[in-house]
Amino acid sequence: MGKWILITRALFEESATPLEYKGAGKLQGSVSSAAFVLDNLAIVIDGKLYLYSLTKGTWTPAQGVKSMVSTVSALQCCFSKDKACMDVSSCVLLYNLGSALDDQQVYMSSNGGNSFFNLPMAPKATEFIIGVFNMPTVSSIVAMLADNQRKFSFRHISGNRSVQTDNHPMRDPLSSIHVIQPAGMRGHLIIWSPHMLLYSPNHGIVIVPVYIMGEENATLPPPKVTILQVATDDNGAMAVLTSDGVLYYGRAGLEATTVRFASVIDLSKDNLMLFSDYGDLMMIQAREDLLLIGVDFDHKVIIVQQELTRTTPPVQSCPVEQFHSTFAGELFYIDMGSTVHLSAVYIPSPLCKFFPLVTVTESKLLSLEEKCVEDGITTEGTKKYRLDIELKQLFFMEAADGTLKPSSSLRKGSLSTVAVDLMGRNVSCKDFNPLKAHILIGCPPGKHTRVLKDITTCTKGTFTQEQLQDNFSYVIPKAVYDPQHLFRPGSASSDLHISYSITDYFCPLLVYHDTPWIPSLELWNGNEFVEQVSADFVMFEVNGMYNYQYLQSVEDAKCVSQPQNWTSLLSQQKYQPNPNTAWTRNNYKSCKDSDGPPLTDPEAQYQVLNMGTRNRVLFPNYNGMYVFRVIVVDPSYSYCMLTTTFSVYVYGAFPPHPLPSCVALGIFLAIFVVLLLIGFFLSKRNYKK
Prior knowledge:
The structure is a single chain. The chain is mainly beta. The protein is 9% helix and 38% strand. It is found in: Cell projection, Cilium, Flagellum membrane. Residues 471-683 form the CATSPERD/E C-terminal domain. Residues 1-288 form the CATSPERD beta-propeller domain. Belongs to the CATSPERD family.
């Protein structure tokens, strides 16, 4: 409020104590910028950034900032605790307002402002920094830059790509330009200075003036009037206070239109303007309490709906009876090839000219299909409409083998906002806020794989659950396992004793040793079955057993390039071989890809499984327990790391012979010869008699 930093958790309903620096060292106390970041308040003091913990009350200087800065920028994601949302809130940007871009470094932090690194900006000419913003709904860092001609533009930086927008004239010095990034993540920007008010509905790409209703081609601010304050909320509402005490109220959608309120604000008081949770305006005035050594607040509430009834020209009464959905404010995931279906209810009055319009912030990543259908009538006889929305992920291309492959433009973790608003309403229907849903390209948290257990040792009576729970253990002979998982015969020095965990594996699958076998993989989302997994997967025995083979060879699988295998991938790991990370969707190469390595060993076993192919696992003449881990490796199937672990009991094998076959054969032949000789001599004796 000018000379203090005051923190309120009750929307200024309670008195507050000015924030006091209690960190190491002495400061002059010149504060130039502040922003909330997670559970901290990031404050630029004397050209350096400090984090004040809102929970612990401690001060921490930021690390990695090597030059003076003036401004901190951060966007807080409040609709979810998902990692993608937390990553947005943890992104902090630092820069020096008005400095030349080629002389000034822009800093970025991905851990909430604790440490920073340089953000390359690639200046194209003499450019000066007005602002730098995180815009996750287009997966970009956006910089607002000014040139020597008193014009500004926006530069979108995403990875190695950089896109520049058109230039626009500035009407005030660079230091007096403010940029508001309203909450809600719809890509809106409001650029204002004393003699300028501009609005962008799409991350600075298109910039338009803010118009005044009832005055032909009139824009804010009016002639000979300057702008003092601008306030916004996360539903698109905006308020503008001008130097003549006039208050303008508007709503930002595809365009921004305001209406002039009849009430006049007393400018003799130093007021802070903001929106309440109910969409009304609050004028907050700080008042120092010398007795309590704190600051109290005086409030003046401006009821927006009442003011809208007194405007000239009058604002149209809302001709919409209902406008709602079940998706407002929710986060939805789109995995590879999946679809999100949304639905909204819209009940207009018979003469209503408003209609619902669907927008998406990242049209390069999502395809949008909408259909408005009549869905019955209300008890009053008014037609009821349902708006159905279907969202799909873009940037898939068909590969040579007919499968869908992600293109190079595909970006996992991209966040987009879908909004349904009433087109043409301007400032009418104040209580019907836009319906917003947030779409995340990535792995849904509940998506996982399971193995279908139709025939188990428990259902067939081989083992009971009680047996498996009662400290059940088994022995793996040293001849059939490798402790390093490298499939090396003779590498184990002793037998391996394993304690079975029925909690982890429940009852083992029961498999006959002489039957080619493949696990039946299922895809689940939470407790909802999705489908049978149709993707390529691999598996390994977690204890290092290797006494099993595969039905198909590389040639049988019709590979056009040499496929990967466990031995080569494990040997390529830098440290101790780890089959959990050696072969995953991140490094999988299909042997059906002609760009792979040349085919050198067509007789090698093909170790990739798929329920839609003929390849199977072959077990030897061995009765015993296996614990397998399955890893879905097809990168075009899902963003998720789909793995599961299960147990198999193989039965039906003949017991091993106690003697080597050659010894047994020799003994058999010797006995046979002895019997022949005995028979010969007996028959000869009988003949003599």
